[in-house]
C-alpha cells in the first residue's frame, strides 16, 4: 500500500537573543577598531583628571586632558555605529556604555567654561593684560598696542632690552609704577601699573621670577596681585610640581581680600595644581565670562594654539566682565586681556 507523507507545516523563524553575536556587516570591524583606538587615549586623559599626576612626564600628557572629550565623543559614535550594524551585542553595548560615562565626565568638566557665571560687577572695572614675551622677543610696538586698554600689565620673560624698547614708545607715560622691571634676564617677570604699587616682593625660589604686589585701584581699592610663572614640566627634577606647591602656599597666604593671580601658569585648568587653586576659591576669567576653551600656547605657528596655560584668576571678591586673547608677533603665547572689578 502506498501513501504520501504529510507536509511539515510553515517554518518558524527564531529571532536571535539581543546579545547574540551575528556575522559582522561590512565596516563593523573597522568601526570597533577605530572606537577602541580612540577610547584608550580618552580613558588615559580622563583618568589623569581624576588622579592628577605630579611627575614631569605625566604632567606633560595631562596638559591634553581636554582633548579627551573629542576623542571619547568620536569613539562613542564609532561604537554606536558598530552596535547598530551588529544589531545586538552585549559586550559592545557595555563598552559603549562605559565610553558614554567617560564622555559625560568630560562634558561635566568642560561645559561650565562655556556658560557665564553671571557674577555681578556693578562698579568700576580695570584692565589687566598678561603676556609671555618669549625671552623678550615680543614685538614692542604690538605689546604697547595690546596694553592700550590695560591699567595693569604682567609681562613674563621680559628682558631689559624689551623694557628699553617699550620706554622708547612712551610706556612709562602710561605705566609709571612697576615691580621687577629692573631684572633684565629672560627669567624675569615684571608688573607695570597706571596705579600705585605697594608691598612688592619677589617670592619663592622658582627658576623664573614671580612677584606679589598690591595695586591701589581707584574706586576699587587695594587689590593683591600675584604675577606668576612656575617652571614647566620640561624643567625636570620635579620643579613643576614643587614650584606649583610653593605658588599655592603663596596664594593661600594672601586670601581674604581682593586677589588676582595672573601669568603663565604652565598648566591647564585640569592639572592638579590648578584644581587646588580652584578649591581655594579662585576662578579663571574664562570660566566666569563663559568664553569657553581659550588655548594660548603655542602661538604664531601654522596650527592654532593647543593649550590654555595662561590664566587670569580672581577670588570671590572680584569678578571678570570680559576676557579676550591678544596676538602679538615674536612670542609663542597669546596674551590675555581681562576686565576686572569688585563683585557684588
Automatic annotation (TrEMBL):
Keywords: Endonuclease, Exonuclease, Hydrolase, Membrane, Nuclease, Transmembrane, Transmembrane helix. Residues 129-333 form the Endonuclease/exonuclease/phosphatase domain. The chain crosses the membrane at residues 30-51, 57-80, 92-111. InterPro entries: Endo/exonu/phosph_ase_sf, Endo/exonuclease/phosphatase. It comes from Friedmanniella luteola. Pfam families: Exo_endo_phos. It comes from the Bacteria. The keyword ATP-binding does not apply. This is Uncharacterized conserved protein YafD, endonuclease/exonuclease/phosphatase (EEP) superfamily. GO terms for molecular function: endonuclease activity; exonuclease activity.
Amino acid at each position: 500500500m502506498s501513501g504520501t507523507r504529510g507536509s511539515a507545516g510553515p517554518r518558524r523563524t527564531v529571532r536571535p537573543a539581543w546579545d547574540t553575536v551575528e556575522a559582522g556587516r561590512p565596516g563593523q570591524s573597522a568601526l570597533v577598531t577605530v572606537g577602541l583606538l580612540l577610547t584608550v587615549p580618552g580613558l588615559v586623559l580622563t583618568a589623569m583628571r581624576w588622579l592628577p599626576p605630579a611627575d614631569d612626564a605625566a604632567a606633560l600628557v595631562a596638559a591634553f586632558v581636554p582633548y579627551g572629550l573629542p576623542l571619547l565623543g568620536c569613539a562613542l559614535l564609532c561604537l554606536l555605529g558598530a552596535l547598530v550594524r551588529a544589531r545586538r551585542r552585549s559586550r559592545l553595548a557595555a563598552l559603549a556604555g562605559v565610553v558614554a560615562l567617560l564622555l559625560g565626565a568630560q562634558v561635566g568638566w568642560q561645559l561650565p567654561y562655556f556658560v557665564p557665571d553671571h557674577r555681578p560687577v556693578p562698579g568700576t572695572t580695570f584692565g589687566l593684560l598678561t603676556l609671555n614675551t618669549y625671552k623678550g622677543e615680543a614685538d614692542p610696538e604690538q605689546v604697547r598696542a595690546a596694553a592700550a586698554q590695560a591699567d595693569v600689565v604682567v609681562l613674563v620673560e621680559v628682558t631689559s632690552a624689551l623694557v628699553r624698547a617699550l620706554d622708547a614708545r612712551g610706556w612709562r607715560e602710561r605705566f609709571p609704577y612697576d615691580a621687577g622691571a629692573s631684572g633684565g634676564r629672560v627669567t624675569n617677570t615684571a608688573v607695570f601699573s597706571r596705579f600705585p604699587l605697594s608691598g612688592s616682593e619677589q617670592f619663592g625660589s622658582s627658576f623664573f621670577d614671580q612677584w606679589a604686589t598690591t595695586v591701589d585701584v581707584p574706586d576699587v581699592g587695594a587689590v593683591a596681585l600675584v604675577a606668576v610663572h612656575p617652571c614647566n614640566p620640561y624643567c625636570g627634577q620635579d620643579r613643576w610640581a614643587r614650584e606649583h606647591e610653593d605658588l599655592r602656599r603663596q596664594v593661600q597666604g594672601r586670601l581674604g581680600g581682593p586677589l588676582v593671580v595672573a601669568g603663565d601658569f604652565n598648566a591647564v585648568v585640569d592639572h592638579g595644581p590648578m584644581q587646588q587653586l580652584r578649591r581655594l576659591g579662585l576662578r579663571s576669567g574664562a570660566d566666569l565670562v563663559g568664553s569657553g576653551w581659550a588655548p594660548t600656547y603655542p602661538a604664531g605657528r601654522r596650527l592654532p594654539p593647543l593649550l590654555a596655560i595662561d590664566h587670569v584668576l580672581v577670588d570671590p571678591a572680584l569678578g571678570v566682565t570680559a576676557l579676550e586673547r591678544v596676538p602679538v608677533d615674536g612670542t609663542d603665547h597669546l596674551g590675555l586681556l581681562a576686565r576686572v572689578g569688585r563683585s557684588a
